[in-house]
Amino acid sequence: MAVPISTEQLFKRHQKVVADADLAGVPRGTRGRVMYVAGMTWFRYRVQFENGVERGNLDGRHLVSVDEWDEREREEALAVRRAEQERRAEELKAQVLAAQAD
Questions:
Q1: Predicted local distance difference test score (pLDDT) of residue 2
Q2: 45 and 36 in contact (C-beta within 8 Å)?
Q3: pTM for the full model?
Q4: What one-character-per-residue DSSP string does 13-35 give?
Q5: Residue 16: strand pairing partners
Q6: DSSP letters of 43-61?
Q7: Beta strand 54-59 with 44-49: parallel, antiparallel or unpaired?
Q8: In terms of Cα–Cα distance, which of 50, 53, 64, 66 is closest to 6?
Q9: Does residue 50 register a pLDDT over 80?
Q10: What would the pLDDT profile of 1-49 be if each residue is shown by its tens digit?
Q11: CA-based angle 88:93:98, to the nearest 5?
């Protein structure tokens, strides 16, 4: 089966991006800047990452914009907070019911 590739130009030169996958020498979440865009039917990017690693021929599915990354982090943090609030509410409910039973 063929591997999907980026057939649309997702990023522009000098745009700030974030690695959305673990790459050789670049952990997921590392920020970088697009240095070069190549391709007509398959768009590839050369990115200089903040950890000093420069990677070329990166497909767009390995990168996301900084705005999209930040939004994902906010959503994940919100989900964690909601889960914690629900857990606390269940604990308090159990305590109230236990106190009423006594």
A1: 62
A2: yes
A3: 0.78
A4: TT-EEEESS-BTTB-TT-EEEEE
A5: 33
A6: -EEEEEETTS-EEEEEEGG
A7: antiparallel
A8: 64
A9: yes
A10: 666 777 888 999 999 999 999 999 999 999 999 999 999 888 999 999 9
A11: 125
How many angstroms separate the CA atoms of 41 and 6, rounded?
8
- pLDDT at position 52 is 97
Domains of the chain, by residue range, sit at 16-101
**Local structure of residue 78 (DSSP, 8 states):** H
What is the rounded (10 degree) CA torsion for 43, 48, 53, 57?
Answer: 10
Q: Which residues pair with 36 in a beta bridge?
A: 46
Kindly report the length of the chain: 102
| Token pair for 4 | 């999907």
The partner residues of 55 in beta bridges, in order of sequence, read 47
Q: What is the pLDDT of residue 63?
A: 96
Asked if 43 contacts 50 with a C-beta cutoff of 8 angstroms, the reply is: no
